[in-house]
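Good morning,

Attaching, inline, the backbone tokens for the sequence recovery test we're adding to the shared suite. The designed sequence is right after.
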């Protein structure tokens, strides 16, 4: 299976399936932004758990398949943002600069740098925590028009109207004398 087939099977097909179900563009944009924001959490291996907990807490406010797909898509980005989150956290606290050298890696692997490693993880988490509202907000703003276009183009279910079809119509109850 080539890269194109893999991308089709893992990204394109699930996204088209989501779009064809007729979800609201704003909910999809929020869910994708949330999935990516949680997906770049700087501790590898816990993002699926974070997404699951978030989906359980938010319930119908987010679209679970979109959160999970965005989380999956964010994995390569997660790895590339660990160091920027680490440096951002160090800048916020004014803490010591964790050296990213082969010597430091050797200390980590032999267990000689446990305090420094824990401090660097805490700095990376702080950097992510400080940046995540901005990441979420920026992604949401960028993704709303994208999902409006995609939902309009691929949805097979009409969107539910936000307003009544006839704004001046009323519902009257018919009372019968028995």
């Amino acid at each position: 299976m080539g890269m194109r087939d893999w991308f089709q099977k893992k990204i394109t097909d699930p996204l088209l399936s989501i779009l064809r179900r007729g979800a609201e563009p704003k909910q999809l944009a929020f869910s994708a932004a949330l999935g990516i924001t949680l997906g770049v959490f700087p501790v590898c291996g816990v993002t699926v758990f974070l997404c699951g907990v978030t989906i359980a807490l938010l319930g119908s406010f987010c679209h679970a398949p979109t959160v999970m797909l965005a989380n999956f898509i964010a994995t390569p980005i997660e790895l590339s943002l660990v160091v920027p989150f680490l440096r951002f956290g160090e800048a916020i606290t004014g803490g010591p600069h964790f050296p990213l050298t082969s010597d430091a890696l050797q200390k980590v692997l032999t267990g000689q740098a446990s305090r420094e490693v824990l401090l660097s993880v805490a700095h990376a988490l702080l950097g992510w925590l400080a940046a995540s509202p901005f990441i979420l907000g920026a992604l949401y703003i960028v993704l709303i028009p994208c999902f409006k276009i995609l939902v309009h183009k691929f949805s097979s279910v009409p969107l539910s109207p936000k307003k009544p079809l006839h704004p001046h119509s009323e519902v009257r109850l018919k009372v019968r004398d028995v």
